[in-house]
Amino acid sequence: MGRGPVIPGRREAASPESITTIGEYGFRACAFGASRNDERKQRENPKTKSLQDKVVIVTGAGRGIGREIALLCAAEGARVVVNDPGGAADGSGSSATPAEEVVEEIKKRGGIAVANFETVAEAIPASRIVKTAID
């Protein structure tokens, strides 16, 4: 299999860490991103977090459902890239504050997270989101 970000329904990784992209697919990617070996480890040791040692990109993570998905994934042990350009609902403006607030909340809870403010609407900026996850 080729190497690239995990897409819902596929189990391929861009680096030794598995990267799961969550955005439009939301909970599906978070809930079903684990491999069969991960599921077996979870059954054998129920205290193991389902996304332990995974890297998760959550787009739109500054507010609303995206925020909650980022917090849930961090609680399950994932290292989270909190992506949100901070625009208004109509797409105008930008602010780093929403993404930074989510990162701080994850860190307060003992998780690992980094903010990213790139847009997913264009290929080159979107590729920088994945680069952030790999680095």
Give a description of the structure.
- Strands 1-2-3-4 form a 4-stranded parallel beta sheet, sandwiched between helices.
- It contains 5 helices and 4 strands.
- With 135 residues, it is an alpha/beta fold.
- Helix 3 runs parallel beside helix 4.
- 38% of the residues lie in helices and 16% in strands.
- The radius of gyration is 14 Å and the shape is globular.
- It starts with 17 loop residues before the first strand and ends with a helix.
- The N terminus is likely disordered.
Keywords:
alpha/beta; globular; disordered N terminus; 4-stranded parallel sheet; 135 residues; single chain
Helix and strand element order: EHHEHEHEH
**Low-pLDDT windows of residues:** 1-19, 24-34
Shape type: globular
Structural class: alpha/beta
End-to-end distance, in Å? 22 Å
Tell me the strand percentage band. 15-25%
Q: Could you tell me the radius of gyration in angstroms?
A: 14 Å
